[in-house]
């Protein structure tokens, strides 16, 4: 039986199937991506990650990100830490640069987690705040965007390589995110759809965050969503430029640097190594 190896990894429970196409290309049609990501028909994951040869000299690897709906995304914070750790391991180094369709992401090992795997800081690039960059359909102040449903109103827009709308609420757990998330994701206000974050202030420098991810649904953690939430809360004067974000799967520390880049620090995990039947790829 012909098989293709894969790694199953996760960052705070946001889980990935990682395929390596650096030496031999894989023919991943949207339908094949959907099947691999499907938890009944394939392996199952929140995002399918494909490693490819970098096209920029400074980069160590190119990371392609696919959502379970088969669509491609420009950023995935949790997967970036996982991929960085794989390449650091291969190269016996504590620093690598991960290339994505949105840019180059410098990644640094900063310590070891309680699971014996590295804790990694990724420079997720600049937070983009102009309405055209989110993007949204009409000119507006992205600190107060004119879109919402029911208890979710007046969000902050941030592009972290992918589009986010962060809504501030008193009780994140009480929000029916599975019902409201898809409606907001597909609202015509967001021409490229959007990741929908629901953030609750827990203290001076602490947020709770739940995210309905574009093309994926509710996940246990969203790294780019955590970056967007701290940028949003900081713009609203709710937290300083560095804060902890508590997600269902664990905590990320986020810092919005003076040059507008956003630094995300957190752990990673390897679940298992497996073999994908080639029939899923043909
Ligand atoms: N899980 C991710 C984000 C994945 C992409 C997102 N669903 C999108 O379509 O933009 C993260 O950790 O950032």
> Any idea of the CATH class of the largest domain?
Alpha Beta
Q: Compute the gyration radius: what is it? A: 18 Å
State the share of residues found in helices, binned by percent.
Answer: 10-25%
Q: Can you name the CATH architecture of the largest domain?
A: Roll
N to C succession of SSEs: EEHEEEHEEEEEHEEEHEEEE
Please, what is the CATH homologous superfamily of the largest domain?
Answer: Diaminopimelate Epimerase, Chain A, domain 1
Bound small-molecule species: the ligand N[C@@H](CCC[C@H](N)C(=O)O)C(=O)O
What summary fits the major beta sheet? 17 strands, mixed
CA(first)-CA(last) distance:
13 Å
Pathway: Amino-acid biosynthesis; L-lysine biosynthesis via DAP pathway; DL-2,6-diaminopimelate from LL-2,6-diaminopimelate: step 1/1
Main location: cytoplasm
Subunit structure: Homodimer.
EC number: 5.1.1.7
Brief descriptors of the model:
282 residues, alpha+beta, Diaminopimelate Epimerase, Chain A, domain 1, 2 domains, 17-stranded mixed β-sheet, 17 strands, globular, binds ligand LBFN2T5F, Diaminopimelate epimerase, DAP_epimerase_DapF
Written description of the protein model:
- Helix content is 16%, strand content 40%.
- With 282 residues, the protein is an alpha+beta fold.
- It folds into 2 domains: 3-125 and 267-281, Roll (Diaminopimelate Epimerase, Chain A, domain 1), CATH 3.10.310.10; 156-259, Diaminopimelate Epimerase, Chain A, domain 1 (Roll).
- The protein has a 17-stranded mixed sheet that branches.
- It starts with a strand and ends in a 5-residue tail after the last strand.
- 45% of the residues are buried.
- The model has no long low-confidence stretch (mean pLDDT 97).
- The site of the ligand N[C@@H](CCC[C@H](N)C(=O)O)C(=O)O has 20 residues, from helix 2 and helix 4.
């Amino acid at each position: 039986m012909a098989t293709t190896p894969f790694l199953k990894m996760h960052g705070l429970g946001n889980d990935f199937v990682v395929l390596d196409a650096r030496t031999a290309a894989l023919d991943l049609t949207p339908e094949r991506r959907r099947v691999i990501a499907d938890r009944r028909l394939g392996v199952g994951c929140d995002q399918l990650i494909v490693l490819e040869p970098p096209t920029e000299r400074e980069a160590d690897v190119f990371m392609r990100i696919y959502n379970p709906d088969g669509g491609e995304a420009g950023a995935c914070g949790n997967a970036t830490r996982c991929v960085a750790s794989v390449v650091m391991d291969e190269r016996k180094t504590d620093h690598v640069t991960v290339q994505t369709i949105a840019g180059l992401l410098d990644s640094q090992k900063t310590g070891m987690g309680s699971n014996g795997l590295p804790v990694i800081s990724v420079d997720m690039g600049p937070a983009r705040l102009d309405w055209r960059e989110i993007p949204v359909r009409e000119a507006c102040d992205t600190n107060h965007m004119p879109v919402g449903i029911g208890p979710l109103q007046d969000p902050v827009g941030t592009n972290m390589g992918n589009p986010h709308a962060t809504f501030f609420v008193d009780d994140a757990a009480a929000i029916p995110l599975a019902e409201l998330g898809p409606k907001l994701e597909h609202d015509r206000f967001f021409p490229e759809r959007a990741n929908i974050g629901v953030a609750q202030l827990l203290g001076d420098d602490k947020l709770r965050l739940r995210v309905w991810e574009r093309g994926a649904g509710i996940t246990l953690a969203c790294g780019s969503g955590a970056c967007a939430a701290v940028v949003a809360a900081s713009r609203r004067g709710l937290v300083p430029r560095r804060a902890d974000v508590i997600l269902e799967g664990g905590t990320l520390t986020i810092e919005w640097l003076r040059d507008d880049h956003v630094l995300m620090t957190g752990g990673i995990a390897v679940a298992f190594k497996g073999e994908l039947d080639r029939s899923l790829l043909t």
